[in-house]
Design a protein that fits this description.
This is AraC family transcriptional regulator. The chain is α+β, with helices and mostly antiparallel strands. About 45% of the residues lie in helices and about 15% in strands. It has two domains: about 10-175, Sandwich (Jelly Rolls), CATH 2.60.120; about 175-290, Arc Repressor Mutant, subunit A. The strands form two sheets. It has a five-stranded antiparallel sheet with strand order 1-7-2-5-8. Helix 4 runs antiparallel to helix 5 (about 150-165), helix 9 (about 235-250) crosses helix 11 (about 270-280) and helix 10 packs across helix 11.
């Protein structure tokens, strides 16, 4: 069999996974948000400018300063309209923040919780205070201070607590074509589960019900939106994407079939073998032999 190599992720994403966090000024690293693997990281963004934020099936028009909380389990996108766009952003992993005993309740706040309100309007005074926190975080992440991680977690906690004191924005608009938006959100969330980068973290979202729960919508509504928009059922999209990932893992990694089965969310290798043969017409072992 030809030599196999594990697929790489971006240097930015690798460094972020090692540290558990990263903070930057938006006008210094405007491309960073296009590079990192959002499925693993929470995001806090303080931004000033004109933009439209799409979050799940809703949209929000921002014309001044807003504080945004991104949940890795809910797809979102950002359309910048103004030429001058400034602010700060922080990414952090759930594992990084959970090293603090206080973090579990914060991750269940209205900002990060599925179905919550992740956007707040920020006054000039509030902006100046939050700017100071982000600037301290940027300075601190460059140091070799022994307790730097604890300090960064404290800064993140401070931002969240300040946000909890504020009134969430109610200026959301339902997407004009709600079914189309839901289908788009589902497809983005589906794609965000891949590539599978390690065999010891199995795929969790592998059914229509799991996706509907993650998006806080009824499974029948999700199925209707996906079917009417794409012509395929939700389950068909999921199984086809898992099958494509299975072929890639068999071809490009040195994982054994049991590891691949587990990574893709199958309880037993036999279930994976049956799935793979149904989807491809051959079993995993034969597929591997054909790669020789």
């Amino acid at each position: 069999m030809a030599a196999k190599t594990q697929r790489s992720v971006s240097k930015f994403n690798n460094e972020l996974k090692l540290k558990g966090f990263n903070v930057w000024e938006l006008n210094d690293d405007c491309n960073a948000t296009r590079v990192y693997s959002r499925k693993d990281f929470y995001k806090i963004c303080l931004s000033t400018g004109s933009s439209t934020i799409h979050y799940a099936d809703k949209s929000f028009d921002a014309n001044d300063t807003v504080l945004f909380f991104g949940n890795p389990h809910v797809p979102y996108s950002w359309e910048t309209r103004s030429p001058n766009y400034t602010g700060y952003a922080c990414l952090f992993s759930e594992d990084f923040l959970k090293l603090s005993e206080r973090s579990e309740s914060l991750l269940q706040s209205p900002f990060f919780k599925i179905g919550g309100t992740p956007i707040l309007n920020i006054s000039q005074t509030q902006r100046e205070f939050l700017n100071t926190i982000f600037q301290k975080m940027i300075e601190e992440q460059q140091t070799d201070y022994f307790y730097k991680d604890d300090l960064m977690r404290n800064y993140i906690h401070l931002i969240i607590h300040e946000a909890l004191k504020l009134q969430p924005s109610e200026s959301f608009d339902q997407h004009k074509n709600a079914l189309s938006r839901i289908a788009s959100v589902f497809l983005e969330l589906l794609e965000r589960q891949f590539p599978i980068e390690t065999p010891d973290r199995p795929l969790l979202l592998n059914t229509a019900q799991a996706y509907s729960s993650s998006l806080a919508i009824h499974v029948n509504y999700l199925n209707r939106a996906v079917k009417e928009t794409t012509g395929k059922s939700t389950t068909t999209h999921i199984t086809e994407r898992i099958a494509r990932e299975a072929r890639a893992l068999l071809q490009h990694t040195d994982w054994n079939i049991a590891e691949i089965a587990y990574a893709l969310g199958f309880e037993y290798p036999t279930y994976f073998n049956n799935f793979f043969k149904k989807m491809t017409g051959t079993n995993p072992s034969t597929f591997c032999e054909s790669m020789v």
